[in-house]
Each structure stands twice: as structure tokens, then as C-alpha cells.
Amino acid sequence: MLTKTQLNNVLPSLPEHVMTDFFRLNMNQEMYQYGDAVHDQIAQLETIFPESHFLKTQRAMLYYHARG
User: Fold this and answer.
1) Which of 13, 18, 33, 41 has CB 3.0 to 4.6 Å from 28, enough for a Cys bridge?
2) pLDDT in tens, 24-49
3) Domain coordinates of the chain in residue numbers?
4) Closest to 18 measured CA to CA, from 48, 43, 52
5) Which residues, 6+ apart, have CB-to-CB distance to 11 below 8 Å?
């Protein structure tokens, strides 16, 4: 798994593409990152894929990890 530093080094080299957005979202979830930025990532992807069960699951996991 990548560290946050490694991820920050890799992201600038990736193209602006929806798959990059999914990669970024997945990595944030793997690193237990939560907050407004991750919520915004999900919301942006939901505008493209409004019925995505994957994105609904990611949002639920985000709330789960942010509890307490």
C-alpha cells in the first residue's frame, strides 16, 4: 500500500480522468481519510454515476470510519 507521501508524489503525474478520480477515492478510503474533500470527491463522481452502488458504499464507509 502507498503511504500518503508516495500518493502525493504519484497523483500529479496521473491524467485528469474519471479513473484517476476513482483511484484517488479508493486510496483515500484505504488510508482512512475522511472529511469534506473526500465527500466532495464522492459527490463529483455521483454527478456522473448517480445510481452507482459502489459510490453509495464508499459514502457509507466514509461515514462509518468518521464516527466517534
Assistant:
1) 33
2) 998 888 888 888 888 999 999 999 99
3) 17-66
4) 48
5) 20, 24
- CA of residue 49 relative to chain centroid, distance: 14
Confidence category of residue 2, pLDDT binned at 50, 70, 90: confident
Sort 16 into a burial class: Cβ within 10 Å, 0-12 / 13-18 / 19+.
exposed
Q: Side chain identity at 51, as an amino acid letter?
A: E
pTM of the model: 0.83
CB neighbour class for 7 (10 Å; exposed up to 12, middle 13-18, buried from 19):
middle
Helix residue spans in the chain (DSSP H): 4-10, 18-30, 36-48, 53-66
